[in-house]
Every structure is written in structure tokens, then in C-alpha cells.
Amino acid sequence: MSSRERILGRVRRALADVPPDEPSYDAAVTRDYLTEHGDRDVARTVELLAENLADYRAIVHRCAAAGLPALLARLLTERGAGSVLVPPGLDEGWLAGSEVRRVADRAESTAQELDRVDSVVTGCAVAIAETGTIVLDGSPDQGRRRITLVPDHHICVVRVPEQVVASVPLAMPRLDPLRPLTWISGPSATSDIELDRVEGVHGPRVLEVVLVDQ
Question: Strand 164-165's sheet: what is its strand order?
Fold first, then answer.
């Protein structure tokens, strides 16, 4: 008997006395809590997102859509990036102003190969203002999870206002739980050892978020 079969067997035994007409979890749990805190318009929600991103030590930029290629080119140049990892579905126009060598997201790329890439540019699925969190779901403009965890520098583009929500409860209906969701609140950091903050332990040391006004 495999471990899987043992676990499923225990689950079946635990559920043996559950009546067939037992309400489903969704029906049994009351969800009458607030979906957001306060009454903010779109502009204030975006401002709150920027504030909380910065509070997590992400570097926040704002620009119009027309200025995005020039801004991305400048950020890569200022970082001294010699290479940038590009998800397969990223808008080609975003990097039109940059001469940095582009590296394709390939399934066969090893962690060592990805570690030699200087930067990665992605889109996002949704951005949550109250928590300063960016969520990636592996869509074509974001690529596989590993490309945003191995390189040391991540530039994430957020389309404003359509990708910005006020709170986690408002973000959840937009996300598919079957997709590989990555929740990012600032650059990778830990304070496990004597409360000394160390960045870049299990993800990018530098996170730059570009809020693009559509």
C-alpha cells in the first residue's frame, strides 16, 4: 500500500459518519465579513498600494503606458544588467527601448543558468493595496514560478487601475486556485537569525514595481 493510499484511507474513515445531506463547506461557512477596510476611490487605493509596497522595501515607479519602454530600459541600465529574462507572453513593446540581452524562459533551464541572469521583467495577475502584495499566477506574461525566484532583480509591471484591488477578499475571485500562485510582499527577506534582516535568501534581493497608468 502506498503512502497516498494510506492517506486517502484515513480521510475516508474520518468522513464515514458524515451525513450525505451535510451542507458543503461554502454553504456552511458564513462570509459576512468586510471585504475591504475604509471607503477609498481608485486613486486612493493605488496610492495605498504604492505606500505599502514601499513599506516592504520594494522600489515603486509610476508612469504612463507610453513611457513604460523608456522606464524599463533605464531601470535595467541603472542596475547594470547585462541580461534580462523574458516570459514568453510578455508584451514585446515593453522592452523595445532596451539593448540588454534577452534570455527566453525555457523549461529546461537549470537553477544555475537562471542564477546567471541579472534581471527578470514580468507582468502580474493582481496587486493588493491593503497588504502591498503582488500575485503572480504563471500566465504567459509572468512565466514559470522559478524565473521570479532565482534572479536577484525582479521588475514587475502592474496595470493601473484594472489589476489593482483593495483587499485579499477582493483579489481571491480573480485568481484560479489551480494555477501556481506566487504571493510577493516586497523583496525576499528573513529575520530568522537574531532578528537581523537578510535580503535575497529565497527570492529576488531587489523588487521594483512599475505602476502603469492605462
Answer: 164-165, 126-128, 133-136, 182-184
C-beta separation of 206 from 187 below 8 A: yes
Q: What is the pLDDT along the chain (214 residues), one digit of tens a residue?
A: 899 999 999 999 998 888 888 887 777 778 788 888 888 999 999 999 999 999 999 999 999 999 999 999 999 999 999 999 999 999 999 999 899 999 998 889 898 999 999 999 999 999 999 999 999 999 999 999 999 999 999 999 999 999 999 999 999 999 999 999 999 998 866 666 666 666 656 678 999 999 999 8
Q: How far apart are CA 78 and CA 84, in angstroms?
A: 13
Q: Which residue has the cell 458564513?
A: 30
Residue given cell 542596475 in the structure block:
79
Q: Which residue has the cell 531587489?
A: 206
CA angle (8, 176, 160) in 5-degree steps:
155
Cell numbers 494510506 correspond to 6
* Residue 23 grid coordinates: 451542507
Between CA 28 and CA 30 the distance in angstroms is: 6
Domain boundaries, the chain: 38-213
Q: 38-213 has which fold?
A: Rossmann fold (3.40.50)
Q: How far is CA 168 from CA 133, 134, 213, in A?
A: 9, 11, 22
CA 23 to chain CA centroid, Å, is 34
